[in-house]
Amino acid sequence: MTRVLVIDDEPQIVRALVINLKARKYEVDAAHDGATALQLAAARHPDVVVLDLGLPDMDGVEVIRGLRGWTRVPILVLSARHSSDEKVEALDAGADDYVTKPFGMDELLARLRAAVRRAEPLGGGEEDVIVETGTFTVDLAAKKVNRDGTDVRLTPTEWHLLEVLVRNTGRLVSQKQLLQEVWGPSYGTETNYLRVYMAQLRRKLEPDPSHPKHLITEPGMGYRFER
């Protein structure tokens, strides 16, 4: 069973999420503050985290950073904050998706399923494929990236974005195709997601992120991976 960690200080939201998730056969743990959430995450190893940014003891972005120090678990942010800057800050810290309150339960559950799906390992029938550049190595089967002899920590969404590009080496992948493959079929216009995540990938993988050699932008069209 998939284990979900719900982090929110509003009891009615926690109750609604727990009821709906358990009805769909998820195992659920709940925390009402950041410190408890980090302890629960370490003890219970959830498969996905649903996180409210407005917690009583610390900002949710701090919780994201705390989790990202040791785990790639998908993080779905749930927040009443509407500004794009705050969304970008959460995504930049390592969140995988962002749902704004008030939210529809069906949409939230669909996003949660998509986040879990993105984090699943590749099926055993796939060939081992290792793609090498002059700077880093991508192991598609093991879902690992190595740079200078060290594994690079990527979030599930960062990995999925890189994987789509690497599997299309040398070919332009449109913004719409990337959004729909990585975030789901209902996405096609949220190009700010791509900008944030491509910037994160370049910071982690490119020798000079401001002049990328491997993760190339085709302005107004999409992105291309070059060895």
TrEMBL record:
One Pfam short name: Response_reg
UniProt cross-references to SUPFAM superfamilies, sorted A to Z: CheY-like
GO biological process: one example: positive regulation of DNA-templated transcription
Response regulatory domain residues: 3-116
Keyword Zinc-finger: no
Molecular-function annotations in GO: cis-regulatory region sequence-specific DNA binding; identical protein binding; phosphorelay response regulator activity
Subcellular location, record wording: Cytoplasm
Record keywords: Cytoplasm, DNA-binding, Phosphoprotein, Transcription, Transcription regulation, Two-component regulatory system
CDD domains associated with the record: REC_OmpR_KdpE-like, trans_reg_C
DNA-binding region extent: 128-227
Any one GO cellular component localisation term in the record: protein-DNA complex
Transferase recorded as keyword: no
Modified residues (4-aspartylphosphate): 52
Transmembrane segment boundaries: none
Stretches assigned to the OmpR/PhoB-type domain: 128-227
PROSITE patterns linked: OMPR_PHOB (PS51755), RESPONSE_REGULATORY (PS50110)
Stored PANTHER family: KDP OPERON TRANSCRIPTIONAL REGULATORY PROTEIN KDPE (PTHR48111:SF50), REGULATOR OF RPOS (PTHR48111)
Role noted for this protein: Member of the two-component regulatory system KdpD/KdpE involved in the regulation of the kdp operon. Upon phosphorylation by KdpD, functions as a transcription regulator by direct binding to promoter regions of target genes to positively regulate their expression.
Protein name: Transcriptional regulatory protein KdpE
Organism, scientific name: Streptomyces davaonensis (strain DSM 101723 / JCM 4913 / KCC S-0913 / 768)
